[in-house]
Structures are given as structure tokens and as C-alpha cells.
Design brief:
Strand content: 5-15%
Number of strands: 5
Number of helices: 14
Order of helices and strands: HHHHHHHEEHHHHHHEEEH
Structural class: alpha+beta
């Protein structure tokens, strides 16, 4: 493992250890004052059934020759969710999951045609670095973009001042970006473009830097967007994200409103206003 991945593994485990309390796991503290937040190393080791020294070495990045049963035991001890377990596996066994950067991204004409034919929902094609590769008219209009405009959605959401007003749950979306990019770092090893993107966001946005330091991880496959659009007002939109095959790292994001809802009517109004 590279030094960066060693650090990433240790930071991730420490962040999850700090997020748990003894009370959550029925660990007695006997009224003592604890100097660090969350669980201690020895408590995680006890819960996982490994020695304190062995667990300490794992937190230091010495992840070679760890058995699947030990990884599972640590994941159970730290109460990791499915996405977090997958992230842990990627950090422990990078060769099994990581991909080489396949070069400039292209989208299939058939995929773009499918997205552009959708008039009931906003639909966007997002690349492996969160670049907007294509969208239908509603997709561009929803985020205040002109037809065909190419932007990086991570930068757009976090650094564009108008997004704070547009996205009612803006802080949640910043966290989602951090969580997705954290997963992407395990998928794409030695990806300079991804490293530069994360570094730039960390420097320019204290909010992103705070979330990034907490090591959130998520595929962000579904959720709810609350949009306060300057043209049509408040929209509550359901997000569903589908991965494009062939390990391309591309995703199609659909944002639609519940049938018959006020938001659905406002979405249709927005579509009529952008002819």
C-alpha cells in the first residue's frame, strides 16, 4: 500500500472509532473521565476479538495479510454501514478494487439521447470526477446552467454562491459530495485530477474541508433535493442515481417529483419556461 493509502486507512478507522460512544455499545466506563472522544483502541480490539497491538498496527496502515474474518470483525465492532464496509475493503485490498484512469471521458450517443428524451424529470450524466457530461433541458435549467454547459458539479455545488440559495439543504449536499469523492478515491488510485479536485475544494471551502475530515463515505444512490428555484419556487425532488456499466464511473442522475404533487406542476412549469 502507498503511504497515502496507509494514512487513509488509519484516518478512516479513527474517525469511525471516534464516532461511537461506550454507552452505545454497553461498554462500562466506571465513571472515569475519558481524554479522547469515542472508543479507545483497546475497546475496538476487544469487540473485534483481536489483540490491541494487532489492531493498533492496522490503524497504522499495516493491512497486508489481514483475513476476511478480521476485516468483518472490525467492521462489526465499529458498526460500519454497507458503504463503509465496502470502503474499508477497498482500503485494505486496493489492488482488488482500484482502477486505472481510463483517459478522457466519452458518453454514448444512445445514452445521451435517452436522457434528453426524458421530459418529466431532470436527468444528468455525471462523470467519474463529477463533471457534467450531458443533461436534458430540465437538468440544465434546474441548476441555472445553459444548454450544453460543461461544469464540474462538485465545484458548482460547493463554490458557486448561488447554490447556497438554490439548495435548501445545501450543507447536506456538500456532505454528499465529500462522501462520494471519498469513495472515488478508493476506486481510482493515483488519479491526479481527482486529487487536485479534492485539494482545491478543501482549500476554497471550509465546509467541504470539515466534512472531508470526518471521512463520510457513500455511493449517494438516492435522496431528496429541496430546491428553491428562482423561476418556479420551491421544489421537492426525489433523486435516483443509476451507474452506467463497464466500470466507467459514469452515473445518470434523475431528479423527479411525486406524481400529482405541487412540485411536479412546478417542474412542468419550468420546462415550459425554457423553450
Amino acid at each position: 500500500m502507498s503511504e497515502q493509502r496507509n494514512t487513509e486507512l488509519g484516518d478512516f478507522l479513527r474517525s469511525r472509532r471516534a464516532a461511537l460512544t461506550p454507552a452505545e455499545l454497553d461498554i462500562p466506563t466506571y465513571g472515569t473521565v475519558r481524554r479522547v472522544p469515542g472508543l479507545r483502541r483497546e475497546e475496538v480490539a476487544l469487540l473485534a476479538g483481536v489483540s490491541v497491538n494487532y489492531y493498533a498496527r492496522i490503524e497504522q496502515g499495516e493491512s497486508h495479510q489481514i483475513s476476511d474474518s478480521v476485516i468483518e470483525a472490525i467492521a462489526n465492532a465499529l458498526r460500519l454501514k454497507d458503504n463503509e464496509r465496502l470502503h474499508l475493503l477497498r482500503l485494505v485490498s486496493p489492488g482488488q478494487f482500484s482502477q486505472r484512469n481510463p483517459g478522457p471521458e466519452k458518453i454514448r450517443d444512445s445514452l445521451l439521447a435517452l436522457v434528453m428524451s426524458n421530459s418529466e424529470q431532470a436527468a444528468l450524466i455525471v462523470g467519474r470526477h463529477m463533471d457534467l457530461l450531458g443533461a436534458n433541458r430540465l437538468g440544465y435549467a434546474l441548476f441555472g446552467l445553459t444548454q450544453g454547459q460543461r461544469v464540474n458539479l462538485a465545484k458548482q455545488v460547493i463554490l458557486e454562491p448561488a447554490m447556497r440559495d438554490l439548495m435548501v439543504n445545501w450543507a447536506d449536499q456538500v456532505r454528499n459530495v465529500a462522501a462520494y469523492l471519498r469513495m472515488a478515491t478508493a476506486d481510482l488510485s493515483d488519479d491526479n485530477q481527482l486529487t487536485e479536485l479534492i485539494g482545491g475544494l478543501s482549500i476554497k471551502s471550509s465546509e467541504f474541508a470539515r466534512f472531508w475530515a470526518a471521512h463520510p463515505v457513500s455511493q449517494c444512490t438516492h435522496g431528496v433535493y429541496e430546491i428553491d428555484h428562482p423561476m418556479v419556487g420551491r421544489l421537492t425532488l426525489n433523486e435516483e442515481t443509476l451507474e452506467v456499466g463497464e466500470n466507467s464511473g459514469q452515473r445518470v442522475v434523475f431528479l423527479g417529483a411525486a406524481h400529482g404533487s405541487d412540485s411536479a406542476q412546478r417542474l412542468r412549469l419550468l420546462d415550459s419556461l425554457i423553450y
